[in-house]
Amino acid sequence: MPKIKSNSGAKKRFKLTKTGKIKRAMAFARHQLECKSPQRKRNLRGTTVSSEAEANRIKRMLPYA
Known about the structure:
- Helices cover 34% and strands 14% of the residues.
- It is α+β, with helices and mostly antiparallel strands.
């Protein structure tokens, strides 16, 4: 049987946790930073877990992850 291709953009952006959840970077931290408060910018630094609805779509893009 032929293999399914993984989505290249998704490969670079998402990682799976041990329990199968999707880990991703925070959005809104790339530009127009002068109008955002330092606390908000600090909180956008880390990673977060995607919602269940998004996780199902991402898992389809990463069949072998």
